[in-house]
Amino acid sequence: MARDDLALYLVLSPEFGGTRFGPFEGLEVRLGADRDRCHIVLPEAFGVAREHCKLIRQGDGSLILAASERTAAVFAWKGDARRPQQLQTPMALRPGDRFALVSPEGARFTVEFAALPPEVVAQRAKAKGRRNNLTAEKFAQEGWRLLLARLWALGPVGMAMRGWYMLTSGALLQPRILIPLAIAAVGYMGTFASSCAAFKFKADAMVAADELDECKAREGFSSSGGGLASRTPTQLVGELASSAALGSALENQGDFAGEVVKKLRTLFASRDNYQWLLQDSGEARAEWIRWREAIGGSDAFDPATKLLLPFAAAIPKRTREDWNVQTDVLNQRICVRGPARLSYRQAWSLGLDPVFVDAFRGDETVGFTDDEPGRMKLITDAALAAGQPAPDPTLAIEQAQLASGREFCLYQTGEDARSKQSKTLDAFERHFGSRANAVPETSQNEAPIARIVKLYAADAPGNRYEENDSPRLDFRNGMVTPLEEEPTKDPILQRSAEVIARAVGLPCMLALERPDAVEATFGRNVDPVTCLVLDYKVRQGR
Fold it and tell me: How confident is the model at residue 493 (pLDDT cuts 50, 70, 90)?
């Protein structure tokens, strides 16, 4: 089939109705909220610009996808890619490629080329028959005649003929002709230089005006009254996470959203606690990035969960060692280990195997260094607190000294599954993936937050998820309701809110200092202006 008989169609993804737009035969297809300028019109409530992006058809059958404005976010999936690329420059697309507006979860279109409808083909054939009486030769002859007539009628052509005559006859070399010509040439050169300077000044002024308008619009001072300044902190969190669902879920959880804002305020004031992640190098940073990439490369998680889960392991003052100390949901100091920094109770509840019991030992128990019964008591108490029987007393107990030098993690020897990234990832896919039990379906706005809450609810004593169809804490019908009778409710929600705060706050902290380093550390970029507005609102308590 001839290329001219193929038309462009754009097909919406099924979750947005599956509508098939087209056929489009023109060189350009525009998408946006302006009905007068766009071929496909989307509601402004989706966050699209008046003219958001356009597709330009090329002669070789390919398409160029380009954002119409610098602030218009467009994401593209090429071929079988699972992860989208955000457009920074125009991108070539082929049939079968997909793209989405505003965010990866936004309205997604698939590019198709298909035959024109029969009625359009019939109209073309009929029009072609009427043109057969006019030959190409006749058109060429008439066009040449009209061109010559127009040229000779132009004043510059007549002047050129007179100049040619004066040059060939020698009349041009007389002083009365040369002096006025020299004066005129100097005047034209000065005029040209002034025009160039004026043009450059005007161009610079237009660029500055555009940048000012863009800045005003983004800061919320546009004539429409919208923009970043009018948005709530939770809406800004959703935008920085590229997840409208996350922002909507937070808006509907007033108390929990307030806890996220509190954690953001604390985070922005405690940069030193995360120096291990915000610097350029270090084994602790490298290990966390490997864990983030492992979660991001899994097909089991939805995009928002992929973004949030790694930040549960981005704990304050994380070290390069396998061990760290954190406060658990009982507000007690406990040991955590492995790339995900899981406690013994979390690992046991999520079904990691094998997992060996451990216990925290601080200054108050310093005498236990050589006291085997004392160390065994700490280990036994930790196992009983998790609802497990007393551990085997024949297993050797070792201790890992922590960075402070005055704190230790006691543990029974053995190859603990928490230290294996592959085993930990398998457990996370089972319990936080798209088919996980005791959490909402990924289509629900609360789904990613509920998965973080489930991670910390796994630290509640006696709450086991593995091989249990009816766990004690089930979040399928609500994120907070199952915790109403749970003594550890507040610590669980506080730690979950802290993860969301880290997921947007840490990239923002780096973007405001070294924006070129954000993507290498966090796998995505964030808008520094949005970060500034969020920082201001959080610090002002707005």
Answer: very high
